[in-house]
Structure formats: structure tokens, C-alpha cells
Amino acid sequence: MCMQKQLLTFLLCSGLFSMTLAQSGGTRSGGTRSGSTNSGWTPASMMAYKRVSNPVVSPDGKLVAYVVATARMDAENSDFLSHIYVTSTDGKLNYQYTFGDKSCTDPQFSPDGQFISFLSGRGKDAKKQVYIMRLTGGEAEPVTVAKNSITTYAWSPDSKRIAYTVTDTRSTQEEKDRKEKKDWDVVDQFQNAHLYALTLTKDAKGNYPVKQLTKGPFHIAGLDWAPNSKMVVFAQQSSPSANAWTSSKIAIVSADSGAVQAIATDKGAVSQPIYSHDGKFIAYIADTGQNSWMRKMSVCLIPTGGGPVKRLVTTPDELPTLVGWSPDDKTVVVSEALRTGSAMYSLPADGGTLKKITPLTQGVYASPNLNNQGDVAFLYQTTDMPIDVYVASLTTMAARKLTDIHSDYIANKNVAKTAVITWKSKDGKYDIDGLLTYPANYQAGKKYPLILNVHGGPAGVFAQTYTGASSPYPIQAFAQQGYFVLRPNPRGSSGYGAEFRRANYRDWGNKDYDDLMLGVDKTIAMGLAHPDSLVETGWSYGGYMTSAIITKTNRFKAVMAGAPVTNLMSFNGTADISDFLPSYFGGEFWDDPQVYADHSPMFAIKNAKTPTLIIHGQSDERVPPEQGYQLHRALQRLGVKTKMITYPRQPHGFVEPKFIEDVGERVIDWFDGNLGRHTTAPYQTASAVTEGRR
């Protein structure tokens, strides 16, 4: 079964969200950063961190495949190059499996254990196809020839077929129009992904036969094979729009005839269907009758032939991700956020009490993958330990570390410590957690500047992930510059239960704002942060809070708003998730304009006095750049110090490493400059030419 599920769903606006190689000591053209050293952490040095994903355990439990992505930042490239590695679970072997200048992703083992497969865009058209390679070695063979990139795929249990999804191709007339420069786009007209089955026995012409299994005005969002290799269950929604997940269904299709049968037609959101090993039931995720972007989800079981739905016991956060079935089909395994950590749970199929099966209370388990005999591969990391690949048995969950991917990266680096601190909310309802990273070389009794960092979402969560990872917010580089960094989880965050996640309903920027400010107050009361050296930053919903903060207080000396939501009315008319704000505010803005105005920073912008840096991607459909421009232009007209930088090609979460590095450097420069901490000229960054441009 293909069950690579991400453990933590960081709902970057649920969706609302995250140059040249560095020279020695963080020096770049134009100057040297204040406080830089020849060793330690800088935004540039942190780009060497390797991103690890997609651990997959082999059917016999002896091998684990995984993906490692490295930043490619030469004169012609700014991207992440991904390749597949394979390690043995006995620790004796660990080697790179794919090579070349084309990324390879989504590894899977064939159920018979003979092949490993992956996706790669190696052809001239760069379209992602499924490749297979014998585990004993040899050349990778492309088995699909789809006109568009393959999006998802899965082996049949008998290893004789591969099901995959691919977006519909344009018609002959549409292609002709595009060549003739009549290439207009109709808004909200999408190309859906449909399901195909490829037979891994070549026909007389030497081709692998392919059968299209679904067609029509809907989009395939997830799939799994039946144990008999004759049926495929899939989740479908009206389109691939980010807004369409709220109305979906589960259906089954025959891999031979193409006959489709809808089985789970719950009103609302359903996803992640997975067959039980005996083929009698399908587990899936469904909302609990309150279909909302504030999500309250549970695991459901339905007989494969249709019938009454059984809803299993709720999980602590009520936002589970399916991992799979136990080998005996008696339990369903899920993962989800747990405060600043994460956990996996087993849910009895008979409706009994759930059991937490991950033993550690610190750190983050991610991307668990379960084979049919109960072996689990997963990623694990803590704030001071980089991410690596682990394996365990479902029965004991005694984890074995299989890799040491970052040994060179962490050599000669000291990791500034991170602690979890907790404070009581102003209304007394909640305990609010925050991750507090100390300055490098912290000296007790000395007060330091503080960066308040607000996450996106609002249903995101700051978790105990490695603080030395590359990011637009390079935490260890902030610490190297002598800052405390506080990353709170105010009400509205995931990981603390559905009630907490919904506690900012119709109340953005008020009680969640209080939660944040009390965290800042706590660091001051602890004698750690200097009250006159406070700065703040956030991305997406965090950018919304940044925009709101500058209208409510002048206690911060500078802020950076990343992809900020600033005007709720115009945001709802331009973002790609038009159901999002009506979920949080109980209606459309034309029905209740006052609540939208009361919670829009732009309607209180005349109160702003704080120097504000604004960062936005030019290709951001989640929070369109007009939101950042509104804030920037208003601050300009009010005479408030402001600078806005836009980055070409970047969506809501930045994808090009040169720009990720640049953002981190700009944030430090902006904060250092406005706190009077520069000892030399700040960096002149590589993207300076884009400043002020649309």
C-alpha cells in the first residue's frame, strides 16, 4: 500500500503558511554581518542542511528507502535536487540509489520485493513518470509515458500493475490556441487528475498497456489497491482547487472493467482511504459533521461493499492522519500533532479506547510508513538533533536509528538550546506553550533582544523540530546573532485539541494576540529578554498577526510581515480558498461587514508606528501580493518606515534556496538595523533588484 502520509499538517492558511554561495564567515558582497564568525550559524551556512522525506519500509522489513534533497545554488540553478537512498534495517548498508541532475522522489517497493520505483522528470519534456529498477541493480526503466506529470501512484499487491493519477491533457484545439498566443485562462477552470492502471507485462508492440479507470468532472485525491489487486479505492473531489477538499467522497473502481461504485458519500470532507488486509473494510478520514477549515476530523470504517459507517474513537487533537492497519486488522494506526511534539496512536476497529504507541514525549515523529507485517519507518528529530530515518516494530515501537545524514553538517557547530515554556492565558482558559531558543553563548543574568515569531495557519503549530534547518526563519542564525527566539502556540493552533483550535472563531487578533503578548511578558519577567529590544515576525497568518500587532502596540522596535493577510474583505475575494474566512467568521463579509472590518489590520492602520519589512512571493495564490501592497502603501502614506521586497516565481511557501537564504539575511539586517546593532554595513543581497517591483 502507498501510505506515505505526513505526520504534521501545517495548515498554512490551511494552507495560510514555512545570491551566491556564502563566503567564509557569512560575508557577502557589500559588507559583513554584525557578529558573524568564521564558524557557527548563518542563513547562508544553513542552506547546506539536507531535507529528508518519504521513508518507506520494504515488504520484508529489511530495507528502508528515503529521499534526501540538497540545495543547488550555482550560477544556473536555485532549487532542491532530490535523490533516493536505501538503508538496511540491520544497519549494515546505506547507499545512494539514484543519481543525476534530475530529481527523483516518491520511492516505493514492489510488494514482491523485487523492484523499487520512483517518480522523475528525466525526459526531454521534464514530465514526471514512474520508473522502476530491480533491487539487485541495473538501469531504471520508465514504465509510464503520460503526457502530463504523474501525481500519485501505487503498486497492486500482486505486483502486476501500477495505478496512478495524472492531470487531464488539453484538447487539440486548446493546444492550437496556445501556439497562436490565444492562451487566456478561465478563472476557476481546472484540469482534474484521473486514475489509470498500467499492466507490467508488455504487449506485442513492446509497450505496457494502460487503461483509464475514471473520467468526468471530478478530481482524484488519493488511492489504494484492494488486497485482491482487482479494485482501487479512491477519494474524489470536485476539482484540484485548494478550496474543494470540503466536499468529497470515497469510491471504488474495478481495475479491469472501469466500473465505479460510490461507497462513502458523507456530506463534507472525506480522504485517505485504505483497505484492511482482509479486504473487508476501508478506513478513511472524515469530518465530524462540522465541515470547516477549523477541521475536526475522525477515522471511519465502512464495509467494502458499502453499508453502515462506524466512527472510531476520537483522537486527542481530532486531526489524525491515517498510517495504516495493523497486520491482524484489529487496529487502525494514525499520527497527529501533540502540543509541541507528535504521536502515533492505535485505534481499535471495534470502537475501543485508543492507545498512544510512540514512547517519547519530546521531539517530532513524521512521515510514518507501515508495511503489512507491522514494521514502521519514520523520521524523527528534536530541536537540537537533526532529522534522521528510524524503524520500529508496531508491537513495541522500540526505535532504531538507521541513518546519520547530517554528521558533516553539525560538525564543529554548537546548537543553542531550546526549551518549552508555558504561561496561562489572560482569560485563564488555557495553558499556552512556547518554544524559546536561547542566544548562542548565553550568559545567565544578561538580558538579550527577543524575536517573537508567530506561525501560520492559524491552525499551524510550532513543534520540536530541528532548529538548525534552513528556513526563511533560520532559528540558529538568529541565536548566533544574540537573539532569544520565542515561538508560541496561541489559541487556534493545532496539537491542543479541537476546542483550542476553534478558540479564535470570530476573534482573530484579539485573545490570540493576548496569548502572544503574555509570552513576551513572561520572557521579560524571567529576566531573559530586554523590554526595549523586542522585534517580531510571522508568515501568512503569522503575517496577519504582525500586521495586527503594529496597530495595537508600539513595544516592538521592528517587524517583518511575510505574505501577510491585511484586509480580510479583499483577501477573501482574491485568495484561492474562498471558504476559509467564512468558516472562521461565520458568514460572508457582505452579510457581516463589521466583523471583517473589526478584524482587518488595514482598518486600524493609522495606529501603526513600527518599522515594517514586508516579504511576498509574486506567484502567491494563497495570500496574493495585493495584501502586502496594501500594508506597504498605507505605511508609506502614513510616514512609517517600511520596505517591501517581492520575489519572482515564489508561491506562498518559498521554494528557491537563494531566495530562502536571502529572506533570512534580510530579516536579521532589518532587526539589527532598527535595534542599532549594526557594526558594519549590512548585506547588499542578491535579490535587491526586485525591490519595489510587482
TrEMBL record:
TM stretches of this protein: none
Keywords, alphabetical: Hydrolase, Protease, Serine protease, Signal
Extent of the signal sequence: 1-22
Coiled-coil region list: none
GO molecular function, one term: serine-type endopeptidase activity
Biological process, per Gene Ontology: proteolysis
Pfam family, one: Peptidase_S9
Residue span, Peptidase S9 prolyl oligopeptidase catalytic domain: 475-676
InterPro entries, sorted: 6-blade_b-propeller_TolB-like, AB_hydrolase_fold, Peptidase_S9_cat, WD40
Record-given protein name: Peptidase S9 prolyl oligopeptidase catalytic domain-containing protein
